[in-house]
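Box 4.2: Ligand-aware structure prediction
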Amino acid sequence: MDLKLSGKVALVTGAGSQIGYGKAIALTLAEEGCDLILGDIDLEGTNQTADEVKALGRKVTAMRVDVRNRTQVDEMVKKGIDEFGGIDILVNNAGASSKMMPFMKMTKEDWDYDIGVNLYGQMNVAHAVLPHMMSRNQGRIINTSGGQGIPALSTYGAAKAGVVMFTRALAKEVQGSGVIVTVYSPGLGATGLTADDPRMDSIAPTLALGRLCTPQDVAPIVAFLASEVSSYMAASMVWAH
Ligand SMILES: NC(=O)c1ccc[n+]([C@@H]2O[C@H](COP(=O)([O-])OP(=O)(O)OC[C@H]3O[C@@H](n4cnc5c(N)ncnc54)[C@H](O)[C@@H]3O)[C@@H](O)[C@H]2O)c1
C-alpha cells in the first residue's frame, strides 16, 4: 500500500534517543519519503539520528529544543517552516519521567516536570503548528499517550491520560479543517524512558503478546497515522497495547 508520504515534511520530537521510539519513527518516515525536522533536548543524539536520515537520501534538520519551553518550540516550528516550506506532520513523541518513585516521595518539582514534558510539551508543539496547518487546510498531529495507573509513575500517567482527553477535544475542534489529530499509546518497551525500571523483565511475559514492544513495532503505526490513508481516523484513539 502506498502511504502517500513521499515529499511530506514531518516534525518529530524526541528522536534523539538511540534506543527510543522517536528515532525509529523518524527513520521509517524518511524511508517512506518524508523530509524531517527533528527537535529534542538531546542535540548530540538528534544529530546522530539526522545523519541516518541523510543516509536515506532525505533532507533533515536537527535542533535542540525543550518542549516545555514555548519560545524554543516556536523557534523550532518557524525555522522548520522557513527551511522546508511547510510542515505536514507533527509526531509529538518527546516524553520523559522525572523519577520512578511513589507519589508521596515526589516533590512538586517532580510533578511539574512530568506534566510539563508529557502534557504541556505536546500542547506547546501542537499549538505552535496548528495555525500553519489550518492555513493550508491539511496536516496530521499524532500525540503520544502511555502507561496510566502504574505505581511509581503517577504523575507521568496523569499527564498521559491528559494527552488522551486533550486530543479528543482538539480533534473535534479542528474537524473539517483538513487537520487530523490522533493519539496512540505505544506498548511497554525497553527505551531510554524505562532504562532504570527494574520491573521490565517481570512485566514482559504478562503483556498481551508475551514480550516487550520494540521501536520497530511502533514506527509503522505512526507512519499509518501520519499518512493520507488514515483520513477516517478523525478524533480517534489507537491503542497499541
Ligand atoms: N518506552 C515505553 O515503554 C513507552 C510506553 C508508552 C509510551 N511511551 C512514550 O513514547 C515516547 C517516546 O519515549 P521512549 O520510550 O522512546 O523514551 P526515550 O527516553 O528513549 O526517548 C524519549 C526522547 O524524548 C526526549 N526528551 C525528553 N524530554 C524532553 C524535552 N523536555 N524536550 C524535548 N525532548 C525531550 C529525550 O531526549 C529522548 O530522545 C514518549 O512520549 C513516552 O512517554 C513509551
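In the box above, the bound molecule is nicotinamide-adenine-dinucleotide. DSSP finds seven helices and seven strands in the chain.
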